[in-house]
Amino acid sequence: MKKIDFFILTIILSIALSFRLYKINTPLADLHSWRQADTAAVARNFMRNGFDLLHPKYDDLSSNQSGKENPLGLRFVEFPIYNASVALIYKYFPLLSLEATGRLTTAFFSLIIIGIIYYLTLKESNRIAAIISSSVYAIFPFFVFFSRVVLPETTALAFAFLSIFFLYLYSHQKKSIFSIICFIFSVISFALGLLVKPTVIFYSIALLFLFYRKYELNLVKKPLFYLYFFIAGLPFLLWRLYIQNFPEGIPPSDWLITSVNTYKGLENIFFRPAFFRWIFFERINNFIFGGYLTLFFIYGILKKPASYFLHFILISAVAYLFIFQGGNVQHEYYQTIILPALAIFVGLGASYLFTNTKTSIHPIFAHATLILVFVFSFFFSYYKVRDYYNYPSELPQIAKIVNTLTKESDKIVTDRMGDTTLLYLIDRKGAPSIYKDPSELKKLGYNYLVTLNDGEIKQLKNDKYQIVFENDKFTLFAL
Predict the structure, then answer these.
(1) Are 293 and 377 in contact (CB under 8 A)?
(2) What percent of the chain has pLDDT over 90?
(3) Strand residue runs (E) in 147-272
(4) Extents of the domains making up the chain
(5) Are 43 and 86 spatial neighbours (Cβ–Cβ below 8 Å)?
(6) Smallest Cα–Cα separation from 200: which of 257, 254, 228, 158?
(7) pTM for the complete prediction?
(8) What pLDDT does 376 receive?
(9) Cβ density class 411-448: b for 16+ within 10 Å, e for less
(10) Alpha helices in 61-97 (DSSP H)
């Protein structure tokens, strides 16, 4: 990279960071707040109770997640590197709230991704493609929102792309100290990525291509090739074996491949028309691309490259989409894993159209039209994504009242159908739904019940439970 590239990238990163500061201090009640709350709760408990990475805990003590009572609040999904990082930063630099610290931590890792997108696209294509690709990831609304949520996906993605970056450097080096360092950094980065979020394993397809490009058919004779994936995968395998000892802390995940939760229960969506409509038309075309960027994306795929390395990044992303069909349809944040590939190919397609205007109308009008397409796409995407930042204003108010009226040691039941947002905002441990009869919940040690449901309020009043507080928004009962 030349000095001009560092200058351009600095500007892009500065703009990207400023976009990610939007509503940085809002309560943790925006889109997918239940998943963000679970992640933030683990960080909060690390900060308060010590950094026991082998026993991460959140605030849900019920059987909602695993089907088993979870009195310790164990939370075994990804290895809690991201959660611990947030807690550590907040503990020693408590300049912002824990939630804002989590968002900034995610934003920091997204800047790493932007830098790597710029570098790889510059090397594999040209500067215009690099600028457009990194800028799309930096400023387009869907990319921005999921680059500042309190979730581990962006952190895992950053580690995965660091592994690609270092292996890319390694693949262009002859035997030297520098090449060994790149190899080591790559394998460590990929190991960390798999621990933080194992779904980044699909980017091993791009890593395999880099190995093949360096060694070609001699690849199968290279011990380093086997050693790389053994070292990268071993920590994750050990973690998965270890957590089997705590089934109460492991939520079910098999449905993420084939099914979505609906009001009728689990519905199979695997390779059904609804999957293609929701992912490729609604999410990618409308929400992520704002409609018109799809044109550039398709051009990027069809344009013949000097090397197919970037196409293997896209293949990695597509493979992930087609394996985890249920999760991708159910939750928007699952698309975080594919965002770098989408940005890269928009950049490739747009750069081709920007630099090949000889057969079109006058270049000035052609360039102006292309810029307008980007502007319209941005605003159409923003129109779809802007509501992601909204949250029910009554939830923080309810949480503040309940927090004031209860002790730190009290266990709270919130009538939220498994959504842990209110429980997190109250800053109490408990259950995010009335998953048993209130009398049984009392025997399990729960002290209070918060409900916003008129039918439930009437029933609890009929059962003579004491009302601690009541207004037009909610009622707090003592159990």
Answers:
(1) yes
(2) 79
(3) 259-262, 265-268
(4) 3-388, 394-478
(5) yes
(6) 158
(7) 0.93
(8) 93
(9) bbbbbbeebbbbbbbbbbbbbbbbebebeebbeeebbb
(10) 81-92
